[in-house]
Each structure stands twice: as structure tokens, then as C-alpha cells.
């Protein structure tokens, strides 16, 4: 009896992604573009206004939030859910984006 229960448990889908939820093929692009826009603001350095500084923070938070959604790119979702500190999450997502996506605009920082 225990072996049949173990077989049923091992056949169960991962609890992190319900079987009815598919991966949005555009999710990685949207997350990465928010991070690119964030970095484009940061490239301006000390010339950021307080509103622009707030926008930089918000873009990072939005990207991390979007990456945590059930239909997000699994690798980005794992990064967003697996690291507690916001700065660490953003840095790891940027590294992933640089390796796996292309920017929409030629003026993107990476």
C-alpha cells in the first residue's frame, strides 16, 4: 500500500506551477525590458531627479513581481522566488536576461 501511495505522490505535478497554467511566451521579454529601462535610467548617474530615482526602484520591483507570477518564464520565476533581497533578485535576473534575451531597441544598455 505504501509503495502505491509513493508512486502516486511522485507522479503529482510540481506544486509551484499548476498544470492548467502555461508559460506566457512574452513574459521574459517584458520582465527583461523593464530591467533594461531601469538600467538606462541608472546610466545617467547623478543626474536623476527624485522622481526618476523612484522610477528606477519601481521598475525593479515590477520586474521582480512579474517574474514571480505563475505564467512567468520558469527560470526568472525561480530567481525571483528563490532570493530574498531585492537587489540580489534584480542582479540575478539581469544576468539571466543578458544571456537569454535580445533588447527591443538599439539604445538599450545591454
Mean pLDDT equals: 82
What multimeric state do the chains show?
single chain
Number of helices: 5
Shape from CA axes? globular
Question: What class would the helix/strand composition place it in?
Answer: mainly alpha
Helix content class: 55-70%
Flag low-confidence runs: 1-19
Helix and strand run? HHHHH
**Measured on Cα atoms, how large is the radius of gyration?**
18 Å
Tell me the fraction of residues in β-strands, as a range. under 5%
Quantity of strands, as a count: 0
Major β-sheet annotation: none
Terminal-residue CA separation:
56 Å
Topology summary:
Layout: H1 2-11, H2 27-42, H3 50-68, H4 74-82, H5 86-100
Describe the structure.
- By secondary structure, this protein is mainly alpha-helical.
- Helices cover 63% and strands 0% of the residues.
- It has five helices and no strands.
- It has helices at 2-11, 27-42, 50-68, 74-82, 86-100.
- Helix 2 packs across helix 5 (86-100), helix 3 (50-68) crosses helix 4 and helix 3 (50-68) packs across helix 5.
- The protein starts with a helix and ends in a 10-residue tail after the last helix.
- Mean pLDDT is 82; it is low at 1-19.
In short:
The chain has 110 residues and is mostly helical. It has helices at 2-11, 27-42, 50-68, 74-82, 86-100.
